[in-house]
């Protein structure tokens, strides 16, 4: 099993504070002979008479020396995980969790915004100090 990101607990606590129930930590999925571990799976009831919303969250801290390299890795991983989820759990929406300071600086760049938009990447922006979710971007 892969190591947890340094901000894993902060994102998990942020989701719990918003009323999410953590259903897997990590979420294990298998597509053919490929094993994948996504950091978290969560569920939230929308209303008593409707089914809940289900998500998977891949957490990134962007602590590598090169932010663009970390971004390349995160986008590739996100696309692979989204495809795997599509095959085994198409009802589950995948989010890429990123720190608020990285979102406000690095993700404000035109090229980064373009990649996010063109690849339909859902973002969950978190504050790792307050352990809260700051933004959900679909």
Report on the architecture of this protein.
By secondary structure, the protein is an alpha/beta fold. It has a single domain (8-137), classed as Trna Endonuclease, Chain: A, domain 1 (3-Layer(aba) Sandwich). The protein is built from four helices and eight strands. Strands 1-4-5-6-7-8 form a six-stranded mixed β-sheet, with helices on both faces. A hairpin with a 4-residue loop joins strand 7 and strand 8.
Helix-strand pattern: HEEEEEHEHHEE
Q: Which stretches are poorly predicted, pLDDT < 50 over at least 5 residues?
A: none
> What's the arrangement of strands in the largest beta sheet?
1-4-5-6-7-8
Largest sheet: 6 strands, mixed
Inertia-based shape: globular
CATH architecture: 3-Layer(aba) Sandwich
Global Rg: 15 Å
Give the structure's gist in a few sentences.
With 138 residues, the protein is of the alpha/beta class. It is built from four helices and eight strands, in the order αβββββαβααββ.
What are the SSEs and their pairings?
Blueprint: H1 8-17, E1 21-24, E2 27-31, E3 34-38, E4 40-44, E5 53-59, H2 67-88, E6 93-99, H3 100-105, H4 110-118, E7 123-127, E8 132-137
Parallel strand pairs: 5-6, 6-7
Antiparallel strand pairs: 1-4, 2-3, 4-5, 7-8
Give a quick set of tags describing it.
single chain, 34% helix, 138 residues, 32% strand, alpha/beta, six-stranded mixed β-sheet, Trna Endonuclease, Chain: A, domain 1, 4 helices, two-stranded antiparallel ribbon, globular
